[in-house]
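Reviewer 2 asked us to include a model.

Predict the structure of this chain.
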Amino acid sequence: MSSFPNVTVDAKANIYFDGKVVSHTVHFTDGTKKTLGLIYPGKFHFGTAAPERMEMIAGTCKVTLDGSSNVIEIEAGSAFDVAGNSGFTITVESGICEYICSFLPA
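Predicted model (structure tokens):
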């Protein structure tokens, strides 16, 4: 999806890992929210409270879900789901990954 009509966006950015991961929160009229962001090269671990779906819209990364040793390569146009109260490690080796994180119902 390239655009979201009828939304409210938080102007204040969510900044993680000294600016190597930056996102903005988008609020939808139905009460759901997503974050849209950039991940610069590096290896980062994120914890999740709620289930999430991470969609890559540009770039390539490697992902390891908590509790697994499998490394999954994710390219633009692909997605992965993360359970609530869990986490994942994401590695960007070069370039910038652009993503949409959707917060899923528990």
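The chain has one domain: 9-103. The mean pLDDT is 96. We have added this to the supplementary material.
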